[in-house]
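thought: user wants a sequence for this fold. calling inverse folding tool.
action: design(structure=
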Protein backbone atom coordinates (compact mmCIF):
# COMPACT_ATOMS: atom_id res chain seq x y z
CA UNK A 1 0.00 0.00 0.00
CA UNK A 2 1.30 3.48 -0.90
CA UNK A 3 1.05 6.18 1.73
CA UNK A 4 -1.36 8.10 -0.51
CA UNK A 5 -3.82 5.18 -0.26
CA UNK A 6 -3.88 5.20 3.53
CA UNK A 7 -7.29 4.99 5.20
CA UNK A 8 -6.92 8.07 7.40
CA UNK A 9 -10.26 7.52 9.13
CA UNK A 10 -9.29 3.96 10.09
CA UNK A 11 -6.15 5.29 11.81
CA UNK A 12 -8.21 7.95 13.57
CA UNK A 13 -10.63 5.34 14.85
CA UNK A 14 -7.76 3.10 15.97
CA UNK A 15 -6.21 5.90 18.02
CA UNK A 16 -9.56 6.80 19.58
CA UNK A 17 -10.18 3.16 20.46
CA UNK A 18 -6.76 2.75 22.08
CA UNK A 19 -7.33 5.90 24.11
CA UNK A 20 -10.70 4.59 25.24
CA UNK A 21 -9.52 1.07 26.08
CA UNK A 22 -5.90 1.43 27.23
CA UNK A 23 -5.38 5.01 28.39
CA UNK A 24 -8.45 6.66 29.87
CA UNK A 25 -9.40 3.76 32.21
CA UNK A 26 -6.04 4.36 33.93
CA UNK A 27 -6.36 8.15 34.12
CA UNK A 28 -6.49 9.14 37.81
CA UNK A 29 -6.78 5.46 38.80
CA UNK A 30 -3.14 4.32 38.44
CA UNK A 31 -1.79 2.13 41.19
CA UNK A 32 1.81 2.44 42.36
CA UNK A 33 2.67 -0.90 40.79
CA UNK A 34 1.50 0.40 37.38
CA UNK A 35 4.15 3.16 37.31
CA UNK A 36 7.73 2.18 36.48
CA UNK A 37 11.03 4.03 36.33
CA UNK A 38 13.09 3.92 33.14
CA UNK A 39 16.07 6.05 34.10
CA UNK A 40 18.43 7.10 31.32
CA UNK A 41 21.75 8.92 31.37
CA UNK A 42 20.11 12.26 30.58
CA UNK A 43 16.92 11.77 32.55
CA UNK A 44 17.00 9.93 35.83
CA UNK A 45 13.36 10.75 36.70
CA UNK A 46 11.76 9.32 33.54
CA UNK A 47 8.75 7.06 34.09
CA UNK A 48 6.53 4.77 32.06
CA UNK A 49 3.12 3.41 33.01
CA UNK A 50 1.23 0.29 32.09
CA UNK A 51 -1.02 2.55 30.02
CA UNK A 52 1.97 3.64 27.89
CA UNK A 53 2.98 0.07 27.22
CA UNK A 54 -0.51 -1.24 26.54
CA UNK A 55 -1.28 1.67 24.22
CA UNK A 56 1.94 1.23 22.24
CA UNK A 57 1.34 -2.49 21.83
CA UNK A 58 -2.21 -1.96 20.58
CA UNK A 59 -1.21 0.88 18.26
CA UNK A 60 1.67 -1.13 16.84
CA UNK A 61 -0.55 -4.10 16.02
CA UNK A 62 -3.30 -1.94 14.60
CA UNK A 63 -1.06 0.27 12.46
CA UNK A 64 0.80 -2.69 10.97
CA UNK A 65 -2.50 -4.34 10.10
CA UNK A 66 -3.46 -1.18 8.19
CA UNK A 67 -0.10 -0.95 6.41
CA UNK A 68 1.86 -4.23 6.54
CA UNK A 69 4.66 -2.79 4.39
CA UNK A 70 5.54 -0.23 7.07
CA UNK A 71 7.60 -0.49 10.25
CA UNK A 72 6.96 1.07 13.64
CA UNK A 73 9.19 3.29 15.74
CA UNK A 74 7.55 3.55 19.14
CA UNK A 75 8.95 5.38 22.14
CA UNK A 76 8.89 2.40 24.48
CA UNK A 77 10.22 -0.05 21.91
CA UNK A 78 13.09 2.32 21.12
CA UNK A 79 13.89 2.62 24.81
CA UNK A 80 14.32 -1.16 24.93
CA UNK A 81 16.11 -1.35 21.56
CA UNK A 82 17.86 1.92 20.57
CA UNK A 83 18.84 0.44 17.20
CA UNK A 84 15.24 1.03 16.08
CA UNK A 85 16.09 4.73 15.79
CA UNK A 86 17.73 3.98 12.42
CA UNK A 87 14.34 3.12 10.92
CA UNK A 88 13.78 6.77 9.98
CA UNK A 89 16.89 6.61 7.77
CA UNK A 90 15.50 3.87 5.55
CA UNK A 91 13.13 3.87 2.57
CA UNK A 92 10.20 2.02 4.14
CA UNK A 93 7.24 3.94 5.55
CA UNK A 94 7.66 4.40 9.30
CA UNK A 95 4.91 4.79 11.85
CA UNK A 96 6.07 7.13 14.62
CA UNK A 97 4.26 6.35 17.86
CA UNK A 98 4.25 8.23 21.12
CA UNK A 99 1.64 6.22 23.01
CA UNK A 100 1.36 8.68 25.89
CA UNK A 101 3.08 12.03 25.50
CA UNK A 102 3.14 13.76 28.87
CA UNK A 103 3.34 10.60 30.95
CA UNK A 104 4.22 12.50 34.14
CA UNK A 105 1.13 14.67 33.73
CA UNK A 106 -0.99 11.59 33.14
CA UNK A 107 0.43 9.85 36.20
CA UNK A 108 -0.29 12.93 38.32
CA UNK A 109 -3.88 13.25 37.16
CA UNK A 110 -3.25 16.30 34.95
CA UNK A 111 -5.06 16.36 31.60
CA UNK A 112 -2.07 17.70 29.59
CA UNK A 113 -1.24 14.47 27.76
CA UNK A 114 -1.93 12.92 24.39
CA UNK A 115 -1.37 10.14 21.90
CA UNK A 116 0.71 11.08 18.84
CA UNK A 117 1.07 9.10 15.63
CA UNK A 118 2.81 10.07 12.41
CA UNK A 119 3.51 8.30 9.14
CA UNK A 120 6.90 9.22 7.68
CA UNK A 121 8.44 8.37 4.34
CA UNK A 122 12.11 9.11 3.65
CA UNK A 123 12.28 11.56 6.50
CA UNK A 124 9.10 13.48 5.73
CA UNK A 125 5.89 13.06 7.73
CA UNK A 126 2.94 12.62 5.36
CA UNK A 127 0.12 12.14 7.88
CA UNK A 128 -0.16 13.04 11.57
CA UNK A 129 -2.54 12.58 14.47
CA UNK A 130 -2.60 14.13 17.94
CA UNK A 131 -5.34 12.88 20.24
CA UNK A 132 -5.91 14.66 23.55
CA UNK A 133 -8.45 12.26 25.04
CA UNK A 134 -8.99 14.06 28.35
CA UNK A 135 -9.84 17.22 26.36
CA UNK A 136 -11.87 15.46 23.64
CA UNK A 137 -9.63 16.76 20.86
CA UNK A 138 -8.58 14.81 17.77
CA UNK A 139 -6.13 16.60 15.49
CA UNK A 140 -5.48 15.14 12.03
CA UNK A 141 -3.16 16.55 9.36
CA UNK A 142 -2.02 15.52 5.91
CA UNK A 143 0.87 16.98 3.96
CA UNK A 144 -0.66 19.53 1.61
CA UNK A 145 -4.23 18.91 2.77
CA UNK A 146 -4.43 20.93 5.99
CA UNK A 147 -5.03 20.39 9.69
CA UNK A 148 -8.38 19.40 11.12
CA UNK A 149 -9.54 19.57 14.73
CA UNK A 150 -12.50 17.27 15.46
CA UNK A 151 -13.25 17.28 11.75
CA UNK A 152 -13.15 21.05 11.17
CA UNK A 153 -10.36 22.75 9.21
CA UNK A 154 -8.14 24.82 11.51
CA UNK A 155 -5.83 27.73 10.77
CA UNK A 156 -3.79 29.51 13.43
CA UNK A 157 -5.86 32.54 14.46
CA UNK A 158 -4.44 36.08 14.41
CA UNK A 159 -3.28 37.45 17.75
CA UNK A 160 -3.11 40.96 19.13
CA UNK A 161 0.24 42.67 19.10
CA UNK A 162 2.07 41.65 22.26
CA UNK A 163 5.36 40.37 23.59
CA UNK A 164 5.65 36.84 22.14
CA UNK A 165 4.77 34.18 24.66
CA UNK A 166 6.19 30.70 24.60
CA UNK A 167 7.97 27.82 26.29
CA UNK A 168 11.70 27.14 26.45
CA UNK A 169 12.78 23.51 26.64
CA UNK A 170 16.33 24.01 27.86
CA UNK A 171 16.90 20.84 29.85
CA UNK A 172 18.85 19.03 27.14
CA UNK A 173 20.78 21.97 25.69
CA UNK A 174 24.55 22.04 26.21
CA UNK A 175 25.27 24.60 28.97
CA UNK A 176 27.08 27.16 26.80
CA UNK A 177 24.39 27.05 24.14
CA UNK A 178 21.67 27.33 26.77
CA UNK A 179 23.26 30.40 28.32
CA UNK A 180 23.70 32.05 24.92
CA UNK A 181 20.08 31.37 24.00
CA UNK A 182 18.72 32.70 27.29
CA UNK A 183 20.81 35.86 27.22
CA UNK A 184 20.00 36.52 23.55
CA UNK A 185 16.22 36.37 23.85
CA UNK A 186 15.95 37.95 27.31
CA UNK A 187 13.76 41.02 27.11
CA UNK A 188 12.24 39.99 23.78
CA UNK A 189 9.86 37.25 24.93
CA UNK A 190 7.57 36.30 27.80
CA UNK A 191 8.59 32.82 28.92
CA UNK A 192 5.70 30.60 29.94
CA UNK A 193 5.88 27.44 32.00
CA UNK A 194 6.03 24.47 29.67
CA UNK A 195 3.70 21.51 30.03
CA UNK A 196 6.30 18.83 29.33
CA UNK A 197 4.21 17.51 26.44
CA UNK A 198 4.82 18.40 22.79
CA UNK A 199 1.25 17.34 22.06
CA UNK A 200 0.09 20.26 24.20
CA UNK A 201 2.75 22.81 23.26
CA UNK A 202 2.27 22.46 19.51
CA UNK A 203 -1.52 22.49 19.69
CA UNK A 204 -1.45 25.49 22.05
CA UNK A 205 0.48 27.36 19.34
CA UNK A 206 -2.00 26.18 16.70
CA UNK A 207 -4.83 27.48 18.91
CA UNK A 208 -3.16 30.90 19.32
CA UNK A 209 -2.55 30.43 23.03
CA UNK A 210 1.23 30.77 22.60
CA UNK A 211 3.42 32.12 19.84
CA UNK A 212 6.41 29.79 20.00
CA UNK A 213 8.44 27.05 21.64
CA UNK A 214 12.17 26.40 21.50
CA UNK A 215 13.49 22.85 21.62
CA UNK A 216 16.85 21.08 21.44
CA UNK A 217 16.22 17.34 21.81
CA UNK A 218 14.46 16.06 18.69
CA UNK A 219 13.16 12.53 19.17
CA UNK A 220 11.09 11.54 16.11
CA UNK A 221 7.99 10.50 18.04
CA UNK A 222 8.03 13.80 19.97
CA UNK A 223 8.13 16.17 17.00
CA UNK A 224 7.30 14.33 13.78
CA UNK A 225 3.50 14.35 14.08
CA UNK A 226 3.04 17.74 15.79
CA UNK A 227 5.38 19.48 13.36
CA UNK A 228 3.11 18.50 10.47
CA UNK A 229 -0.02 19.47 12.43
CA UNK A 230 1.43 22.92 13.08
CA UNK A 231 2.79 23.49 9.57
CA UNK A 232 -0.48 22.52 7.96
CA UNK A 233 -2.29 25.06 10.16
CA UNK A 234 0.10 27.85 9.12
CA UNK A 235 3.00 27.47 11.55
CA UNK A 236 6.70 26.87 11.02
CA UNK A 237 9.28 24.48 12.52
CA UNK A 238 12.88 25.31 11.61
CA UNK A 239 16.39 24.94 12.91
CA UNK A 240 18.66 27.79 13.86
CA UNK A 241 20.38 27.65 10.45
CA UNK A 242 17.06 28.01 8.62
CA UNK A 243 16.66 24.40 7.52
CA UNK A 244 13.25 22.83 8.10
CA UNK A 245 12.88 20.20 10.79
CA UNK A 246 12.57 16.58 9.62
CA UNK A 247 12.40 13.34 11.58
CA UNK A 248 16.01 12.75 10.52
CA UNK A 249 17.20 15.99 12.17
CA UNK A 250 19.92 15.67 14.78
CA UNK A 251 19.50 17.33 18.18
CA UNK A 252 19.86 21.08 17.75
CA UNK A 253 18.13 24.36 18.57
CA UNK A 254 14.78 24.30 16.81
CA UNK A 255 12.21 27.08 16.65
CA UNK A 256 8.52 26.20 16.65
CA UNK A 257 6.51 29.26 15.69
CA UNK A 258 2.98 30.34 14.91
CA UNK A 259 4.29 31.53 11.54
CA UNK A 260 7.52 32.04 9.64
CA UNK A 261 7.80 35.62 10.87
CA UNK A 262 7.86 34.43 14.49
CA UNK A 263 10.61 31.93 13.69
CA UNK A 264 12.64 34.62 11.91
CA UNK A 265 12.35 36.91 14.93
CA UNK A 266 13.61 34.18 17.26
CA UNK A 267 16.46 33.40 14.89
CA UNK A 268 17.38 37.07 14.63
CA UNK A 269 17.52 37.53 18.39
CA UNK A 270 19.78 34.50 18.78
CA UNK A 271 22.01 35.25 15.82
CA UNK A 272 23.54 32.65 13.50
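)
observation: tool returned 272 residues.
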Amino acid sequence: MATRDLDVEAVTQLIARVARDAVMPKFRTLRDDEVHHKATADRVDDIVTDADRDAEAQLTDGLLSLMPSACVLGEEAAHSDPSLMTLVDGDRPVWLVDPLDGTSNFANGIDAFGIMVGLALRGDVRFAWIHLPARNEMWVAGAGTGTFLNGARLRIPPVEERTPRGALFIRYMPPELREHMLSSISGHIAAMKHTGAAAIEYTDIARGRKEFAIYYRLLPWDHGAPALVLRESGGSVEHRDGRPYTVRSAHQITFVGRDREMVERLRGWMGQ
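thought: summarizing for user.
answer: Here is the designed sequence. The chain has a mean pLDDT of 95.
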